Structures are given as C-alpha cells and as structure tokens.
C-alpha cells in the first residue's frame, strides 16, 4: 500500500494515490500526483447549469440524461459527504459525527487517481459500498453501476466540474441546495419522467409551517419521493427547537422519528442520500426509507404527523385494486382515494395530516363519497388550500392541500369536523415553471390565515380568500362534494392581463388534463371488458 503525502500548511501539496484500506489493490495503481486546489464558492444556479450543460457533451459518449443524473447523484453524494465531514465544529449537532463514507472509499480517494486507475477505483467504491446491506449507506449504493465508461470523461466530471466548487451554503451549514437543484433540473427534462417525484419546495415549506412538527413527534411520508417533506420537517425542528435536540430527543430524531416509504428504488435511493446529507440518520444505521408499495398492506407503525403528495394514477403497481385492505372504508382503484384511507390509518389518535390531492378526490362519487363522509365524521377536517395550476411539473394538474386531525368523534357521537376552512389560492393566480415560479412569499398570507385563530381553529379570521363551511352544510351537499370555492373567477378580467404564451400553455394544460382523464376511463373500460376465465 502506497503512502499519502500530507499537504503542508503553506500551500496545497501533491497527493499520492493509495489503495483502499483493507481491500485488494485495484488495477492500474501507478502513483499519480494531483494538485488539489481550494474549493471555490459558486451560486447554486451556476453550479447546476454548469453540470447540466456537461450532459449534452456526454450524449456523444452514449450516456443518457437519466444515466448522467444517476451518476451525478453518486458523485455529488461522495463530494458533499466529504464537505460535511470537514465542516466547522459549530455546525455539528447533538453527538460527534462519524464520516458518512469510510476512508478509502471517499471523495479524497478519487482525487488521488487518474485515468484508468480512477475509473477502476470508482467502480470499486460503488461495488464495495453497495455490499453494506442493512445500512443507509449500503441502501444508497445497492446495485449501483458506473455508466461512464470513458476515463477522460469521468475524470473531467470529477476534477473539473465537481471538485473545484463548494457545494455548501455560504455559512457552511450544508443544505444541499445545489444537489436538490440538480434533481429539480432533471425533473424539468420531461424525457426522464422524474417530474412526478417533485412537490414545489415553497409548498412543502408552507405545509410544514402549518403543521409545525415538535420534538418527540414521529413523522412520515408514505410516498416520499426524494424526501422533500421529511427534510423540511427536520429543518423546521432544527431551526425552532435546536436547543432541545440533545440527549434522548436528538437521538430519537436520528434513529427513526422521521421515516419514509417509496415504491421506486431509484427514487428511494435519492431520498436516502438527501437525508444523510441533511444530517438525518447515519450511514451505518438501519435505512430510514423503506422500499415498498405503501398501500399493499395495513401499517405496522403509527405516526403523529403524515406529510405527503401521493402519486397520481389508477390501481396498484400490479394493476389491481387493494381488496386485501380490510381496514379501508371503501374499495377503489383510485390511488389517491386509497392514500387518503391509508394515511388515516397511519395516524395515531390526534395525529395531524397534510396531503396534496387532485380535484377529483373532492367530488368523485361512489367510494369517494363514502371516504369523505367517514373522514368528516372521524376526523377534524379543518383546512383546504385550493392550489393554482402551473406549479407542478406535470402540466395542467389541479390540486389542493387537505389538512385534518385524527380526533375521532366528539362527545355524544358528534362528528369530528366542525368547520372546514377553505383558502382560495387558485382564482386569479397564475404561475409557470419559468416565467413566474411559485415562491414561499406567495403562500405567506395562507400560512398567516391558517394560524389566525391560534390554537382554536374556530376563531380564525375570514378574508376575501378564506372562509369556513359548517359540517351540516358540507354533509348536505350532493355526494358530500368538497369542491368548494371562495372567490368567483372573473375570466374576462384575468385573461385580459395574461400574455399569449401563458394563455396557450393554459390551453395545453387543460387538454392534457382531459386526455389523462380519458386515458384513465379507457383503461378502466378495457379492464372491465377483459374476458374472465369463465368466458374462455
């Protein structure tokens, strides 16, 4: 095993390659000297744009956009883990932190190699870390493979495009902004199909600010995607209760107070990376993300808070309904309605939920009506936020955020819901993903309205966009339709000030929504028309 020359205090020194401790030397282990320059600060958008532009060059090497993003997640994780290990002590919370990645498999071990030796060692790292079964780090690298086969391409990516820059915020408290920005950029590429995993960060933050997690509470997301809700909940706790997160409460937060579930392994991998980089869990601990179909079976664990944006779609992963879920109020192939029922069952008594739902969950008949009746009766369904279009990567999505507490019925068998407060953030609001993006400031008025009654929701202050509906009024509506409005849309007035490109995009959005609905109906009819075994 060759030695490593330590840099002198006066200037960066040559670093000599060494083999991974405890591992057989990888091929092409010639000693290579690499100048390691101090990392430079760069804005998040600059870093993301620089990395994304390199994707176009990689296409000529046979590396697809999806493969490039996947490889970047591995490399950025290693780089940011290295930065995290070298943070000032002031930013290390609770207990002394162990490095996320063991020595010899870390970023510095890549920086000491070049050419074929670099390529071989990168592949060694992916394989070795992926064999650490039962741990968060092992789950991150499970089945990881190198898709960049040209040594020169890999070396430029590592040493020229990633290593020279600091991927932390200016105050050195790593937030992963550039990392998340890259994932978001991947979602904008419609060909990757990644957009389904992303909830706008301002909306996530607003939902967490409404629910207000507290130390000691357990939090989950049954369809966690890349972990946005879980990371935002953790950030809220650290920001507001940092002095309380020592000792038992701090250890509980790290050991499973925040967990998630994800159906797609590749997406769950991103969630695990994101959580580790944001200081949630530890690399050698049990994974905090479970890869499974959340709807397939009743929950084995119950939570104080559920935050979620369940995926849109019909049926289970196998195309079947969840008939085995005897804990559901009504069987249905509507995935969102099933998630509403599942989230109710996930909650502890008096637990709180906030979930993003498409419009059809508010008015669909049959099972939808049964579910809404039960929800209003057994929970305090207290807030509905009507969202505008143009804030999700999937075009034309009309969605809402529903907030409810699992209170059970009140004394005397009275329903849990007294009033449902509706905030109309849809009427007269126009957002796009590029020209006018949703920002947290746009939701300030809603969050203020949400908390306007303090601990007593009935004492909230109504406004032009915010008004309550009594339980009796809700339950008397046809099919318990909760597709409620506050403001009346003046289409002529709003269209007058919209630019032609916005109007054109809205037309496209509406057509895509209609097409998606027709597709779902066609699939349902096709399934119903399929001959049964008795007909054959």
Automatic annotation (TrEMBL):
Q: Which SUPFAM superfamilies match?
A: S-adenosyl-L-methionine-dependent methyltransferases (SSF53335)
Q: Which residues form the DNA methylase adenine-specific domain?
A: 171-453
InterPro entries on file? D12N6_MeTrfase_N, DNA_Adenine_Mtase, DNA_methylase_A-5, DNA_methylase_N6_adenine_CS, SAM-dependent_MTases_sf, T1MK-like_N_sf
Pfam families (alphabetical)? HsdM_N, N6_Mtase
Name the UniProt key words of this record, in alphabetical order: Methyltransferase, Restriction system, S-adenosyl-L-methionine, Transferase
Q: Name one GO biological process term.
A: methylation
What catalytic activity does the UniProt entry give for this protein?
a 2'-deoxyadenosine in DNA + S-adenosyl-L-methionine = an N(6)-methyl-2'-deoxyadenosine in DNA + S-adenosyl-L-homocysteine + H(+)
E.C. code:
2.1.1.72
GO MF term list: methyltransferase activity
The N6 adenine-specific DNA methyltransferase N-terminal domain is annotated at: 47-160
Q: Which domain of life is it from?
A: Bacteria
PANTHER family assigned: SLR6095 PROTEIN, TYPE I RESTRICTION ENZYME ECOKI METHYLASE SUBUNIT
Instruction: Please state which protein family the record places this protein in.
Output: Belongs to the N(4)/N(6)-methyltransferase family.
* Protein name as it appears in the record: site-specific DNA-methyltransferase (adenine-specific)
């Amino acid at each position: 095993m060759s030695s490593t020359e330590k840099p002198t205090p006066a200037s960066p020194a040559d670093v000599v390659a060494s083999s991974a401790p405890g591992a057989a030397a990888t091929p092409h282990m010639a000693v290579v000297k690499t100048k390691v320059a101090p990392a430079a600060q760069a804005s998040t958008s600059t870093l993301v744009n620089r990395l994304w532009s390199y994707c176009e060059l990689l296409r000529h090497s046979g590396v697809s956009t999806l493969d490039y993003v996947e490889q970047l997640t591995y490399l950025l994780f290693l780089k940011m883990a290295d930065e995290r290990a070298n943070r000032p002590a002031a930013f290390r919370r609770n207990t002394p932190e162990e490095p996320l990645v063991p020595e010899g498999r870390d970023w510095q071990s890549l920086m000491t190699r070049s050419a074929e030796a670099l390529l071989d060692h990168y592949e060694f790292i992916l394989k070795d870390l992926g064999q650490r079964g039962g741990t968060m780090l092992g789950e991150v690298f499970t089945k990881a493979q190198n898709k960049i086969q040209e040594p020169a391409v890999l070396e430029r990516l590592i040493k020229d495009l990633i290593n020279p820059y600091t991927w932390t915020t200016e105050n050195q408290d790593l937030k992963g902004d550039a990392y998340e920005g890259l994932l978001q950029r991947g979602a904008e590429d419609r060909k990757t199909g990644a957009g389904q995993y992303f909830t706008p960060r301002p909306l996530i933050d607003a939902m967490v600010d409404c629910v207000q997690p507290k130390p000691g509470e357990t939090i989950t997301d049954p369809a966690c995607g890349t972990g946005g809700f879980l990371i935002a909940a953790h950030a809220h706790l650290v920001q507001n209760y940092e002095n309380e997160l020592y000792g038992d409460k701090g250890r509980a937060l790290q050991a499973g107070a925040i967990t998630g579930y994800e159906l797609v392994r590749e997406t769950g991998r991103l969630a695990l990376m994101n959580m580790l980089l944001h200081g949630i869990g530890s690399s050698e601990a049990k994974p905090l993300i479970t890869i499974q179909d959340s709807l397939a079976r009743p929950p084995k664990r119950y939570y104080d808070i559920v935050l979620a944006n369940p995926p849109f779609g019909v049926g289970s992963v196998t195309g079947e309904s969840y008939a085995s879920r005897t804990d559901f109020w009504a069987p249905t192939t509507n995935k969102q309605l099933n998630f509403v029922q599942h989230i109710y069952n996930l909650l502890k008594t008096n637990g709180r939920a906030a979930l993003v739902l498409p419009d059809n969950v508010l008015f669909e008949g049959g099972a939808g009506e049964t579910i809404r009746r039960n929800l209003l009766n057994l929970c305090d369904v207290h807030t509905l936020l009507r969202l505008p279009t143009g804030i999700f990567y999937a075009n034309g999505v009309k969605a809402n955020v529903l907030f409810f507490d699992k209170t059970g019925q009140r004394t005397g068998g009275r329903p849990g819901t007294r009033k449902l407060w509706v905030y109309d953030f849809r009427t007269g609001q126009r957002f796009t993903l590029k020209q006018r993006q949703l920002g947290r400031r746009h939701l300030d008025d809603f969050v203020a309205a949400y908390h306007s009654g303090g601990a007593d929701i009935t004492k909230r202050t109504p406004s032009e966009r915010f008004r309550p509906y009594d339980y009796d009024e809700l339950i008397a509506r046809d099919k318990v339709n909760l597709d409620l409005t506050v403001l009346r849309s003046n289409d002529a007035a709003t269209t007058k000030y919209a630019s032609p490109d916005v109007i054109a995009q809205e037309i496209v959005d509406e057509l895509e929504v209609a097409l998606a609905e027709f597709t779902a109906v066609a699939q349902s009819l096709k399934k119903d028309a399929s001959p049964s075994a008795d007909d054959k």
